[in-house]
Amino acid sequence: MRIALAGLATSHPYTDARTLSRHAELVVWEQDQERLARFTAEHPRAKVAGSLEEALSGRLDGVVLTVPNPQVPEALGKVLETGLPCFVNKPAAAARAQLEQLDRLPIHDRVLSCSVLRFAPAFADVRADRGELLAVRATVRHDVGLWATGYNAWQDTPGEGGGTMVTMGVHGVELLVALLGPDVRPVGAAGARRHYTTLRSEDTGVMALRWDDGVTGVVEILGVSEPESYSVTLHRRDGSETIVIEPGDDPVRGLGYEGTIEAFLAMAGGAPSPVPWAETRAILDVLVRAREDF
């Protein structure tokens, strides 16, 4: 098997490659030479391509796409021309213009884009009984202090990478939509800089959501946090149940990175994406609307 990693714009493809390298030969393309050198130091046998077009040429079984959000529509369009299965590292869009560009692409059923937490072992088998459910809450604890130093400034810029509300908020929205479905809309959002004052976006945020059947939800984003963890709370009349997702001894498995790549490899073998694009589109719309609300 041969997989192309098209772009290394975030930390995720480095983690993805650790699982992929056990199953496939790797081809890598990245515009930033420092990021590329870091990758090839860990994966010296990877073939380095000089352009996205070169990375997509020749025999391939799939593509992991990770470029800055403003570049995703054009790059994904080129991947779609090959017909190959593609995993787009989250979030596929962080602003209205980007989402509208994605809407014009012929996205097929072997394109996957999601938060890896959907495939975390602690969450994978969770189900919600809609008849008993009153409300839901997702809490995202992921520190964003690195952005306060100017690192990956595009991610922290609302009109480019969406800032903390979008880039970290996707984890909470993804978990709730995975449980309750895509018939959801945001009804309010707020954010603030409580600690990292040099950020371009916020370090804390909250979204209020409502599903068509009346279930309400809250997503809390805590970007000032020592431990990384995620939780979902299901509120019922007789009490509440909380599911906690933590890195554990093996973060690649515990946070769902491994499960996500296993799903992608199944797509490379011919299976459709386990997350329909319509569901991903609904998640992206919630995030973009929440970003626009404040």
TrEMBL record:
It holds the Pfam family GFO_IDH_MocA_C3. Residues 131-230 form the GFO/IDH/MocA-like oxidoreductase domain. It comes from the Bacteria. PANTHER family: BILIVERDIN REDUCTASE A. This is Gfo/Idh/MocA family oxidoreductase.
